[in-house]
């Protein structure tokens, strides 16, 4: 009977929460990376060099670093419903106003502020999911949620291309409308979130009383077991060696790979042929991200079924690195798209299993602080990756040399993963 209730509870939570958080993350990530598509026309209008564009793309993550730990502690205290609603509304305003930048400095300021106000969203959702999913279901839940990384580009790439080629309303350049139109949904969903998002299982009207009780007790028991092993405060979590190791793994591997692709893929595809329009680039960019979305779900599900999360993080990063090095020797557009799909899938597929690793030893306020530390330090890779590629491209004229530097970074992350103790990377198998 309890097994049936458990399966039913987890299934309902996945059906209710994951699609909604997925939608919010699509909006979030599109606002974060649409600067890559805007660059196809914005760089010329604002006089941005490759290096300046890389800096503008990356400065987002300096602002992103500042506010994550306090944001997660606030969410833990007042609940996700109120705090995520506030974050959505403010970032929607900043994202929309980015369309009115008139100089490189304006763009730098807008991107920094966007990072500052978005900082609490992703680590807040990861923390929120730990309130709803037991350890053995968490990697798949995170992977399903994080397929939004890929689907935001599957959906957003063609839309961005169409806006760039066809929307010139009120005398404004199309890249400005790109920021305005894609920033507005965050404002709408910030209001919706306040009215529909439950903070925890005990508030979930979509669960039966038996399901609420089982899920509440299951999560509480896991938290209690982790506390017995060693009760850790938020301050201790922020100094914990394993937390910092995970932060560096996230920095060198997942984030460097993610944002290299997200910010530079439109320009890489545009460079494959002089005949490609912005709209054509948008539709071609769908292909790597669609493949990545599929592999995220497959890899996250496999990690949970086998109750093994290290190798399911490590192997995709190595595959992605190898594919990056192969790009140095590929000349044809078709083969380039195929290999770029492998690069993208490897970088993205590691996310679900990775985010199951902190939940093995963090709970409560320690989880709030630890997850925020991992995400904030790790996301500095989002500054360095696009900037390094832009810096190297400005000096060599070849974007693939910059990508090769990122490939080395992915291999460093794979080596760091080997340092995690075995008990921190495995657990009980799914029901």
TrEMBL record:
Q: Which CDD domains match?
A: MFS_ExuT_GudP_like (cd17319)
| UniProt cross-references to InterPro entries, sorted A to Z | MFS, MFS_dom, MFS_trans_sf
Q: How does it sit in the membrane?
A: Multi-pass membrane protein
Q: Cite a GO CC annotation.
A: membrane
Q: Which SUPFAM superfamilies match?
A: MFS general substrate transporter
- Record bears the keyword Chloroplast: no
**Matches recorded under Gene3D superfamilies:** MFS general substrate transporter like domains
Give an example GO molecular function. Answer: transmembrane transporter activity
Task: State where it is primarily located.
Answer: membrane
Cellular localisation: Membrane
Which top-level group of life is the source organism from? Bacteria
Q: Name one Pfam family in it.
A: MFS_1
Domain Major facilitator superfamily (MFS) profile: from-to ranges: 17-425
Q: Which UniProt keywords apply?
A: Membrane, Transmembrane, Transmembrane helix, Transport
The record lists the membrane-crossing segments as 20-40, 52-75, 82-101, 107-129, 141-163, 175-197, 243-265, 277-299, 311-330, 364-388, 400-420
| PANTHER family reported in the protein's UniProt record | PERMEASE-RELATED (PTHR43791), TRANSPORTER, PUTATIVE (AFU_ORTHOLOGUE AFUA_6G08340)-RELATED (PTHR43791:SF36)
- Give the protein's recorded name: Nitrate/nitrite transporter
To which species is this protein native? Desulfurella amilsii
